[in-house]
Input
Amino acid sequence: AVQIQNRATLGGNLGTASPAADLNPVLLALGARVRLASVRGLREVAVDDFLTGYRSTARLHDELIESVFVPERAPGEARRFRKVGTRRAQSIAKLVVALAWSVDERGNVVALRGGAGSMAERSVRLVELEKRLVGGPLDHARVRAAAAASAAIDVRPRDDVRSTARYRRVVFGRVLEELLGAR
Output
């Protein structure tokens, strides 16, 4: 919603560690790092390691989120994002998916990172999807197989007031296929 967009921050999305946060899967897909500050000094933590559980982070009690670093975009890198909710404005996500990937001159995936929200107790990396797609082309059969494996392995959706786990898992696989061009 406009009210949230005008007040929201990256630090707020990370600090609350909501599993339904819209930005956290994006930060996972982009390989972002969080810089934490305290009287002891500064330390950096990958977003993968910063989000530790349901509304839980690696931030110590005396630390503040000082900044968030997003690596420079690789030449030719494709990026995609999809949020599924019940309506456009002020909707808590049923699921969020973010992807970033690069292909070589032969069309083979050389790098891929993915993140998902509202699909587990925290925003998660899509490690199985990454493992199955890097090194080969994004053809329909490979993408569909990788999306199905990711839906079975990478995520652990739950039933709640917004959706069922079954719905989330099915739609998640379809969103992956769509974002990667297999639908």
